[in-house]
Amino acid sequence: MRLLRSAAASLVVVFAALLLPLAGTAIGQPVNTEVEQTQWGPLDAAARDMLVKVRLAGLWEGPAGQMGVEKSANPLVQEAGRHLIEGHTDLDARVIELGKMLNVPLPTAPNADQQGWLREMTAAPAGSEEFDKVYANRLRAAHGKVYIFLSQVRAGTRNTLIRDYADVCMRTVLDHITVLEKTGKVDFTDTKNIPIATIAPAAGAAATPQVKTAVGPEMSMPLIVVIGGVLIVVTLVGLRMLLGGRAKQRFRG
């Protein structure tokens, strides 16, 4: 009987361990992979996200550029500010038009993080080294992240409008990165905000197969629970019969 109880406990633990990953897959939030067909090609979630991110960038980097021109005493920071104003004035006009054409809602105000960065720049004393450092580092970090994202969308999009706009965005963002770095105020030892580059896979290299666990409609959670319960019952009955048979043999002997 002790062996029977031990076997039952072990089965429950094993079944729970197998069930938990499946449960996480089954009840997780679905990813929005909706693709809308347009006359310029398919418009997927990444393309829509690109338009939103570029619009958000303009909503805070345009005002930041104005601050660089007005608050800094460093001609290089002032020049970076002018590049930001010109670049985002153009990108904003384009993205607003694209949003209308592709029916993509766009934000009208900077997000919480961006508002915080603007407050940092506002709080830093005009003409100070502190302002120049906050200015250059916040903007360089943000542009680096956006540039990586733009390159990923550009590489994969099948929409000609998005592809053309991504080209314009990447040229503009690279220009901004360049002028910000020319200020000499960017702290490249800050690997949190400016991560160190990693080695990319070799061209033509075979991709490592990704094994994904999924619960399809024919293997829903209730069905998994029922099957697991049946397996436990069958195993316990089998063990009871086996132990009972051995006991009878010992008694007869």
Automatic annotation (TrEMBL):
Transmembrane segments: 219-243
Domain DUF4142, first and last residues per copy: 47-178
Source domain of life: Bacteria
Keyword GTP-binding included in the entry's annotation: no
Xref: Pfam families: DUF4142
Signal peptide (UniProt feature, chain positions): 1-28
InterPro entries associated with the record: DUF4142
Keywords: Membrane, Signal, Transmembrane, Transmembrane helix
Presence of the UniProt keyword Zinc in the record: no
Name used for this protein in its record: DUF4142 domain-containing protein
Native species: Umezawaea endophytica
